[in-house]
Amino acid sequence: MTYQETLDYLYSALPMFQRIGAAAFKKDLTPTIRICEYLENPQNKFLSVHVAGTNGKGSTSHALAAILQKSGYKVGLYTSPHLKSFRERIKINGECIPEEAVVTFVSQHRKFLEELKPSFFEMTVALAFAHFAKEQVDVAVVEVGMGGRFDSTNVITPVIGLITNIGMDHTQFLGETLEAIAFEKAGIIKPSIPVIIGEALPETKKVFHKVAKDRNAPIFYAEEWVKAKVSEDLKLVGSGPYQGYTLNYRGKEIEIQVDLLGHYQVRNLPAIYLACMHLKSMGWNIEEGHVLAGLRDIVRITGLKGRWQVLRDSPMVICDTGHNKEAVALLMKQLALIPHERLYLVWGMVNDKDVSGVLSLLPKEAKYVFCQAAIPRAMPAESLGELAGKYGLKGECIKNVNEALAHVLKNATKNDLVFIGGSTFVVAEIEEL
Fold it and tell me: Tell me: the pLDDT tens digits for 373-421?
């Protein structure tokens, strides 16, 4: 098979959550365990860092990978979903898995895959672990897909775990309360393995504390160790590609620059920094200079896209993959900080999210073009526009994402501001990305 034929086979033969939703979700690690056993447990042949959370886990995973690479390690990085190419999910030192490696894996193991019938995600996790083991990475940063306890990535035993935060997302799978969701994500906490908690609420902290205590796992709350703030003297989007922050760690102030734009990174930085300090205390070759250099070049090193990404300057066009209430609230707050005349939002969502909750957070003064990604889970643009009207949001419906953006750019002036978001899959379809 060619690479494209291999992808077509995987997409058609294996259920994919990103496309079909609930039918592809399993609360069972057995298929992943079986495929890993068949592959001689590649997940045990390299060290790993495990990252879970509702928001920020992708940015955090990429940041840690960049820092570890700057520290001299050969670093695997597993993330999901991809934006443009399936190969983005599996990287080593910023390089996507080669097409031939994907083709070879599927060709060699197709018979077993068809017997086991794993989900698309289970197969992808196994492929990543096999690739990392074959290429002998020093360490892999592994991002949880959903939840933690039953997530396919949870067959690893990491050197350290990190949970960014807990919010109300994927409630139909993880639970209807913060406590229930925290319990699922706390499933990545392993016996005697330290875990860093990025942000904790009273409801979630007691869950994390109990699970960590039951498993004799040292637990550290980043906000108790590291304080972070946006530097007042640097503009949000200026001539340079960096956002400035000040960290305070044990009374020492540290000035850093991050090439991932977006004020919400201030919430991720304490856990990232504390995780690095813990790895250093465990004997890893991570110096402050490595941390600063890695944070400054996350995008360049890892190729991360879609996080407060500025696509053009005049008019300013920004996209972001944030799609739940907590993420969208932060995005709207940051949009309000950028001087502009008119605000345009190209907006699309998937139908299994809290659509009403998100729409209630969007600015009523903005001009909207509602669209939909080309996946079965996408909410029809007309239905989204109709529901948005109940929240005082007015606009047009143009199904195709790029046609919707082109329509806005035809009408926007150089002093206007355009934002594209609502779904990872909407952002993924932007041709300019």
Answer: 998 889 999 999 999 999 999 999 999 999 999 999 999 999 999 999 9
376-393: burial string, b at 16+ Cβ within 10 Å, e else: ebbbebebbbebbeeeeb
What pLDDT, on the 0 to 100 scale, is given for residue 32?
A: 96
Q: Do domains 3-302 and 309-428 have the same CATH topology?
A: no
What's the N-to-C CA distance of the chain in angstroms?
29
Instruction: Identify the pLDDT of residue 26.
Output: 64
**pTM over the 0.85 mark:** yes
Report the DSSP beta bridge partners of residue 257. Answer: 244
- Nearest 5°: the CA angle 80, 401, 366 is 105
Beta strands (DSSP E) in 215-340 are 219-221, 226-230, 243-249, 252-258, 309-313, 316-319
Q: Would you state the CATH architecture of domain 3-302?
A: 3-Layer(aba) Sandwich (3.40)
The pLDDT, as a whole number, for residue 170 is: 62
Give me the residue label for tokens 């259920």. Answer: 15
CATH superfamily for domain 309-428: Mur ligase, C-terminal domain (3.90.190.20)
**Parallel, antiparallel or unpaired: strands 95-96 and 139-143:** unpaired
Domain map of the chain by residue range? Answer: 3-302, 309-428
Can you give the pLDDT at residue 433? 72
Nearest in space to 359 (alpha carbons), one of 310, 267, 422: 422
Positions of the chain with pLDDT under 70? 15-26, 170-171, 232-240
Q: Detail the DSSP E strand segments found in 320-401.
A: 343-347, 367-370, 395-397
Amino acid at 413: T
Distance CA 313, CA 339 (A): 13
Q: What is the 3-state secondary structure (H, E, C) of 76-142?
A: EEECCCCCCCHHHHEEECCEECCHHHHHHHHHHHHHHHHHHCCCHHHHHHHHHHHHHHHCCCCEEEE
User: What is the rounded distance in angstroms from the CA atom of residue 29 to the CA atom of residue 400?
Assistant: 37
Half-sphere exposure of 423 (CA within 13 A, CB side): 30
Beta strands in 242-375 (DSSP E): 243-249, 252-258, 309-313, 316-319, 343-347, 367-370
Token look-up 């599927």 returns 106
The whole-angstrom separation of Cα 308 and Cα 330 is 11
